Amino acid sequence: MTAGIRPRRSPPYRATGFTVLELAVTISIIGVLSVLASGAYSGVLDVRARARAQAEAETARAAVRTFLLRNKRLPCPDLSSNGAGGREGLAGSCPIGAQVGWLPYESLGLPPPQPDQRMRYAVSRQGAGADLVAPPDLGTIDFDGVARLRSALSQAAKLARGSDRPFLTGRGSAADPESCSHIVANPAFALIAPVADRDDVGSTHPGFDGLNRAMADTSAHCIAAPGRAMDATYDDVVLAESASTLLGWLATTTR
Fold first, then answer.
1. What separation in angstroms does the CA of 65 have from each of 23, 70, 83, 154, 254?
2. Dist CA 65 CA 4 (whole Å)
3. pTM of the model
4. pLDDT digits over 237-246, tens only?
5. Residue 28: pLDDT above 70?
6. How far does Cα 197 stand from its chain's mean position?
């Protein structure tokens, strides 16, 4: 009698694919990763935007210095309401008290930026013999105007700190508070470049954050510190040059 051949059994059936629970977990993980990736991408864009503003502010600083060297004075601010004028003053006039306005791009030979990227510009014009836009005549022979400019810068460098001129405040520490009642220095000129409306406070020019909003909207003299770090509510770029720094630079450039 021959042994019978046993029929081969099929393996037990197992469903393929994801269960509802596995699918839900997978979707949750994808969602979390998407949020993280979106946040990281947004952060990269923010850093790039501020780097662009920093580079443009440095270019503007160089243009202001070039203007100073050629004209033996600092430029008057563009006094148009939104900075579209591009030229010094307003309608060819620059009142003595005009210390805060827009950067006069056309007068500096710079291409105008997008409206929301226009820089605010402040210049020191107060104090006896210290008007840096219109250095006073010394009553002596001064063919190229260098002597008048040097004298005005020297007088501006000697002035006591005050709120009658554009001024920088602190960086925000306990010892160096960020407050318009805390005057750290009065620069010869300052540039304030907006990036984005990070503080989410509505104003005429929302791109400027913190203390710089009033300076942009009302020509106030108080300016945030150049070393102010970027955070969740602030990303403006501030550059400033002191009168003594310009005086030293002028001496090395014109000798």
1. 63, 9, 20, 17, 13
2. 105
3. 0.82
4. 999 999 999 9
5. no
6. 12
